[in-house]
Protein: Aspartate aminotransferase family protein
Organism: Phreatobacter stygius
Amino acid sequence: MTIVPQMNLSREALEPYWLPFTSNRAFKAKPRLFVGAKGMFYTTAEGRQLLDGMAGLWCVNAGHGPERITAAIREQAGHLDYVSSFQMSHPLAFKLAGRIAGLTPEGLDRVFFVNSGSEAVDTALKIARAYHRARGDAGRTRLIGRAKGYHGMGFGGLSVAGIARHRRDFGPLLGDVDHLPHTYNREHQAFSRGQPDWGAHLADELEAIAQIHDPSTIAAVIVEPVTGSGGVLPPPKGYLERLRAICDRHGILLIFDEVITGYGRLGAPFGSTALGVTPDIITCAKGMTNGAVPMGGVIASTKVYDAFMTGPDEAVELMHGYTYSGHPLACAAGLAAIDVYEELDLFARTARIAGYWEAQAHSLQGEPHIVDIRNIGLLAAIEIAPKPGEPGSRSAAAGNLCYEAGVLVRTAGDALVLSPPLIITEAEIDRIFDTIRQAVRALA
């Protein structure tokens, strides 16, 4: 039996759903409803085709609806729909953990499954504190995030994040948290291609924070290798290396939030590989299942894992987990996603096409209202000067014009943010940036 999706809904039918990160009243007055997706394109309820410039929400790396992933989910649902991972599990969870460990930097080979990037971050922060306690250093509780950072919407991730509007309504948040400054300075970095030359010294702010609080009180530093939702900010050359060195000097764990940069976005399995800096813990999600089933993970070093493996064999080493950790359908999707990425040679393909992406992004320099362009891998942000007193107004208008022209982009403050499926072609890259060019030319 073929199920035909409901194409249009009445205003009354829209009311029960409280949408996340959405102006609900405005949306329900003029909804954007999608009813299908394949490859690089969404299908709207009106039957329009939209070129997806955001890979869903940074996650559909192999494009929408790869049959291998769909078939794997369908088959698994027919065999085993659910089993807990509390004192039991199923074979696919172990197979997926092994496949993931084969993609990570050397030494990062212990995988804890969760259901989202938000859960991954909160789990990583808990592991960091518990790690120090397990080693007899329970005084290390302080967590260091970074301005403009996004680490999901759990209380832990929100506490270490650095986007003020996300935090404003939910305080007080966790104590024992401090923040590094962000790495962006338009005066020194505008129109940089890839990693900016200026800004490595900003990592030294961690030394200043350590001296204020006493380094022996700091459990972990968490940063995105490339700031994503905060506006696509590639790390300055040498910055992550300096953070790594400072953490090593003071016995602080370094956590990379790779929810966006994991699974090929920078032309390597993980951003840490592409950027040549290995953290102690990686968080991942999004591309983990190609967005098909919610899933996230925390990938810890052997050093971190082994610190917990003491005491009686029967003891629960980490008193933490979720009902759906290692869900069978998610594991099936995760294994199939890795198969698809390998079959398409997607990580190497991304590295090859990233140069064309960069050139086309920077071809917008000199267009009206564009004050900066940032890119790395298959990520880009086009910064648009706001109208006086109206922050975000021009970028929102440009995003709407792109949508009407058949290209889906995301706005973040005054920037258009781009993160397409990694299967994108040069012709589709041209279409995205040509559409943005026409949109900014039409702005007042």
